Amino acid sequence: MERLSGRVILVWGFKRTLLSILAGAVGVLALPPFGFFAAMFVSFTLLVWLLDGAAAGPDSGFLGRLWPAFAIGWLFGFGYFVAGLWWLGHALLIDADEFAWALPLAILGLPAFLAIFYGVAAALARLLWSDGMGRIAALAFAFGLVEWLRSFLFTGFPWNAIGYGAMPTPLMMQSAHVVGALGVTVLAVFVFAAPALLGTRQGRVPGIGLAVLIAAAHFGYGYYALSLPEPPAGGKAAPVVRIVQPAIDQEAKMNTDADRAAIFDKHLSLSVQPPVDGGKRPDIIVWPETAVPFILTDNQDALTRIADQLDDDQILITGAVRVEDMGPGLEPRYYNSIYVIDGRGQIIGASDKTHLVPFGEYVPFENILGYLGIQNVIELPGGFSAAASRQLLTLPSGIKLYPLICYEIIFPNEVTPEIRKADAILNVTNDAWFGDTPGPYQHFLQARVRAVEQGLPLIRSANTGVSAYVDAHGRLISGIDFNEQGFVDATLSSATGSTIDDRMRNAYFWLAIGLVGIIALISRMGFISRAN
Questions:
Q1: What total of structural domains would you count in the chain?
Q2: Which residues are paired to 424 by β-bridges?
Q3: Helix crossing, 176-193 with 133-150: angle to 10°?
Q4: Are residues 415 and 269 part of one domain?
Q5: In 228-312, where does DSSP find H-type helix?
Q6: Nearest CA-CA partner of 307 in 357, 343, 278, 337
Q7: Contacts of 95 (CB under 8 A, 6+ apart)
Q8: More confident residue, 427 or 62
Q9: Which residue out of 15, 230, 280, 353 is catalytically annotated?
Q10: How many CB atoms lie within 10 A of CB 169?
């Protein structure tokens, strides 16, 4: 290991650039659909050794001394985000004549921008760099801080935060309930980077010892949490939820009125199929994001047909476009919404999306970028509008669902205190935009981790992949894979009943940041022994 680390530290020029990019790209193997979390050990061990060799000239100023580390971090991030997000280009090929020109921006431009965060992380870590365990702690501190920033700066895009590589299975997800996905990122980076100590010897015993302790706690808490008995059910019988996945080709949604009618019929047909193996009739039926391919409130016949198909005590929950008339001479506003419809065809509840997808649902700085010909991938006049707040969906039975539409579920900070009143998380999405690529599976993992964080079951309906019912510990109870058409019925299970809330999780996250930061700082100051 020492010989290998020496070669990596001393590599230079094009080889150094290529190795930095490859180090980031290798880490993507820890993410879905692969789930090979050991790849992160290779990725971060190489990053530590590369940063060990990130030396600037003796006459360099402050920024000049940080530049070599920033460049390595940026190259590492570029490799990680290109390998992990290349599938975003698939959405532009749905209407290739209109958007193919933007492929380089999606496949290379966005990763180049996101890589700046990892460049900053590497530069920040280099400020606290020292021999031994301290530099591992500095890297964990810096990555934890920039992943937190990435979750909200520039509207936020925390997709594939490093911590998800440490949570490929329910056993390895449970720590997120205590420290959150961002807290797992802090601790995971420390553990993933620890093998670098084998190659440089300094601080090997305390550093690897602490990493083993963290890993043991991660697995141990997972085993403990999964072994706990299920909370007792309430007085009422738990409802049966039917999750519908119609697997409609995205291009068909953009075609004729006849195609839209056929799409609506397909959803209805799957909703009224008899339960498999003679099971209980569903009480709640869930359709995916924008499942209704027209303005539902303008189509009374559609509501009548829903009423004809549902029993009086059944509930349909569907994604739909909601339109709001702004008055004479003004353009209407469109919202990406969820409707709750009762057995009489009446809309009895609704919630609008609050966090929109840039360039998908709205164009930032539209006055400027619109003049340059840049427009939404989704064709709506003026794009979607964002709602000011999220509405908890309360069903006639008293069941409360916390709605998160599409990629809202990747944001831990999108969750408000209202979720403490909810019985389950509801996520409707349409991942057909991304085809049979890693994207839908990465999205599903992040949705499962939200369920674990909140200690709530997850009801997830996707147009195609991955529709599923997940319990409060992130375990897949039943689901439908990508491109499969059908439905699954599941009985709504209980929440974990945990008293840990988002405020406590945030406190534990900052505690983890503080601890590794202190280790890095006192090591930098020379107070930690360099014992082997």
A1: 2
A2: 401
A3: 130
A4: yes
A5: 257-271, 300-309
A6: 343
A7: 254, 377
A8: 427
A9: 353
A10: 12
Which one of the listed residues 406, 408, 414, 453 is annotated catalytic? 406
- Counted residue by residue, the chain has a size of 532
pLDDT value for 375: 55
Domain annotation covers residue 244: yes
Amino acid, res. 298: D
Beta bridge partners of 427: 404, 460
pTM of the predicted protein model: 0.93
Rounded to whole angstroms, the Cα distance separating 329 from 322 reads: 19
Rounded to whole angstroms, the Cα distance separating 161 from 359 reads 21
Max intra-chain CA distance, the chain? 80
Return the higher-pLDDT residue of 158 and 202. Answer: 158
Residue 285 and residue 220 share a domain = no
Q: Give the C-alpha separation, 237 to 88, whole Å.
A: 42
Q: Is pLDDT above 60 for 257?
A: yes
* Stretch 202-220: mean pLDDT: 94
Reduced to 3 DSSP states, what percent helix, strand and coil does the chain have, rounded to the nearest 5?
50, 15, 35
Task: Convert the pLDDT of each residue in 337-363 to its tens digit.
Answer: 999 999 999 999 999 999 998 877 777
In a domain, 15, yes or no: yes
Which residue is associated with the tokens 């659909």? 33
Whether residue 262 is predicted with pLDDT greater than 80 in this model: the reply is yes
Spatial neighbors of 32 by CB under 8 A, at least 6 apart, are 168, 438, 441, 442, 444, 445
Q: Are residues 208 and 268 in the same domain?
A: no
The answer on 101 and 78 residing in a single domain is yes
Whole domain around residue 258: which residue ranges?
A: 240-492
Q: Are residues 308 and 445 in the same domain?
A: yes
The yes-or-no answer on residue 353 being catalytic is yes
Sheet holding 424-429, edge to edge: 393-394, 400-405, 424-429, 458-462, 467-470, 476-480
Q: Catalytic: 289?
A: yes
Active-site residue among 2, 98, 266, 289?
289
Check whether residue 354 and residue 274 sit in a common domain. Answer: yes
Confirm if 282 and 275 have CB atoms less than 8 A apart.
yes
Radius of gyration of the chain (CA): 25
**Helix/strand number for the chain, H first, E second:** 17, 12
Query: CA separation (Å) from 148 to 157, 403, 447?
Result: 10, 23, 18
Mean pLDDT of the chain: 91
